[in-house]
Write a structure and sequence with these properties.
Number of domains: 3
Number of strands: 19
CATH superfamily of the largest domain: tm_1862 like domain
CATH architecture of the largest domain: Alpha-Beta Horseshoe
CATH topology of the largest domain: pyruvate-formate lyase- activating enzyme
Bound molecules: S-adenosyl-L-homocysteine, iron/sulfur cluster, FE3-S4 cluster
Helix content: 25-40%
CATH class of the largest domain: Alpha Beta
Distance between the termini: 36 Å
């Protein structure tokens, strides 16, 4: 397929696999198999990247550890979205110095979005000398080459140059779950929202080829995955760099037409190009979960323009109306930023009134955090911190009330749920998710994990639903119907 995005040649990927084989042979000579630990911060894209890092580490002969203790290789996959996330990483990476003193041959790696910020790379170079390897997200496919370089002790490795990114296919992956899987459909972001660091850390928008994505989903379904989330910073930009008329709604529908017993979700949708075509596909495809994360960021059109979001309050509300006209009980979640530079109290009130008007099922609320190198970080920001915090608290309080009210409406209904894990409370031995991704606690036999079951909702809190099995459940394939057919039922937040 002709395309504008560079694709890493197969020969370059094969070379990385040769490095893996070389390290595997070296590791095989050790008295015990070496262990590697990958710690992940940030968004689902980073979770998906960590699954690739673990896949590559396994190819290199490492056992994947689930804790830092005794690890021979530590990989910290970082997030730069807010100051707080970065401080946590610096604190935790700093603390690794003690383990390294006890075990000087330990290799410490830092990758992810922070690695792509010049001031962070400089600070690591100067003040975190126990960190051996630093590389940005666009270089992830070269991890075996870098690790080999460090392993053979050719000094510290910093691969943090600015990079628009390419598409790398054929990397080994080690998935964390057996029921739920991430599938990246595209990388990068071209939107340059004025507060956001992502376009600087993740490079330009680029799409994976539809055939490769669809065969990955087909294989996941065949292997029994039940819940597949398509990932991109803005999935609605999918296909712009591809030929053949591909866009996100077309990809989503093609994925939903694949055989198997699974449910599709996607993250994230930028409202400016969430189209009626997308809503139509969601409405007509039973395998597309009736849920959408549609970040609005602010209820004030003036603030939205300053954020470079390219939609107004009214346009956002129109999108929600168009969506609900097609799927009345769609689960709607969102992100919002409080205290954007120059936001007035009256503008904050518009955010509050928007959440009262829309009544999201759940809201991810953030206080604005200035990011070096973004335009918003240069704007005057007169509102005192205490006032921003008070506004934040009001917003959270309002949303908690709405979330609880939305949950209360579930009581007495029967929800088709995927039983997905073990609960930590003996009275609720299982956890499950509604099609809309809402957490349900219930009691039942562990053998049900991985199956769909009808669950009667009996109680709720702001954060979760509580229920009981509505009928003894049989393995879902023998039930002969789609587990996702309950399009009309209410499905709250992830
Ligand atoms: N690509 C996604 C967002 C990824 S970041 C999208 O556009 O929807 C997740 C959320 O973090 C954003 O939606 C925003 O609400 C928040 N965020 C991003 N940058 C921020 C900053 N500088 N300060 C506070 N919150 C921020
Ligand atoms: Fe950041 Fe905006 Fe891109 Fe989302 S769309 S990643 S908020 S720049
Ligand atoms: Fe964080 Fe990078 Fe994701 S900044 S939110 S890990 S894209």
């Amino acid at each position: 397929m002709n395309r504008t995005t560079p694709v890493i040649p197969a020969g370059d990927i094969a070379r990385q696999k040769e490095y893996c084989a070389e390290l595997r042979a070296l590791n095989a000579r050790r008295p015990a198999p070496p262990r590697a630990w990958v710690d992940t911060y940030g968004c689902q894209q980073n979770e998906a990247d960590s699954e690739l890092l673990r896949g590559m580490l396994a190819e290199m002969g490492y056992q994947i550890a689930d804790a830092e203790e005794g690890a021979d290789v530590i990989v910290i996959n970082t997030c730069a979205i807010r100051e707080h996330a970065e401080q946590r990483v610096f604190g935790n990476v700093g603390a690794l110095v003690h383990g390294k003193r006890r075990n000087p041959s330990q290799i410490i790696c830092l990758c992810g979005c922070m690695a792509q910020e010049p001031h962070v790379a400089e600070r690591l170079k100067q003040s975190y000398r126990h960190v051996d390897l630093v590389f940005g997200p666009q270089q992830l496919w070269r991890f075996p080459e870098f690790l080999r370089r460090v392993y053979l002790r050719r000094g510290r490795v910093f691969e943090t140059q600015p990079d628009d990114g390419a598409i790398a296919e054929g990397l080994p992956v080690r998935r964390s779950g057996k029921l739920k899987a991430w599938v990246s459909i595209m990388y990068g972001c071209n939107n340059f929202c004025s507060y956001c660091i992502v376009p600087y850390t993740r490079g330009r928008e680029r799409s994976r080829e539809p055939e490769i994505i669809l065969s990955e989903i087909r294989e996941l379904a065949e292997r029994g995955y039940k819940d597949i989330t398509l990932l991109g910073q803005n999935v609605n930009s999918y296909g712009k760099d591809l030929e053949g008329g591909w866009d996100f709604p077309r990809l989503l529908e093609a994925a939903a037409n694949l055989p198997g017993d699974f449910l599709l979700r996607f993250m994230t949708s930028h409202p400016k190009d969430a189209t009626e075509k997308l809503f139509d596909v969601m409405a007509r495809c039973d395998k597309v979960a009736p849920v959408i994360h549609l970040p609005f960021q602010s209820g004030s059109s003036r603030v939205l323009a300053a954020m470079n979001r390219r939609y107004t309050r009214e346009q956002y509300l129109d999108k929600v109306a168009a969506l609900r006209a097609r799927i009345p009980d769609v689960v709607l979640t969102s992100d919002v930023i409080v205290g954007f530079p120059g936001e007035t109290t009256a503008e904050f009130e518009e955010t509050l009134s928007l959440i009262e008007a829309v009544r999201f099922d759940a809201l991810f609320t953030f206080i604005y955090s200035p990011r070096k190198g973004t335009p918003a970080a240069e704007l005057p920001d007169p509102m005192p911190k205490a006032e921003k915090s008070a506004n934040f608290d009001r917003l959270v309080e309002a949303q908690n009330r709405i979330s609880l009210e939305k949950h209360q409406a579930y009581i007495g209904t029967v929800q088709r749920c995927l039983i997905d894990g073990v609960g930590d409370d003996p009275r609720h031995s299982l956890t499950a998710r509604t099609a809309g991704g809402r957490l349900v606690h219930l009691d039942g036999d562990g053998a049900l994990i991985g199956q769909y079951a009808d669950v009667r909702i009996t109680d709720c809190s702001t954060w979760a639903l509580f229920g009981e099995l509505a009928q003894p459940s049989k393995p879902s394939p023998s039930q002969g119907r789609s587990p996702i057919s309950s399009k009309g039922a209410p499905f709250p937040c992830p």
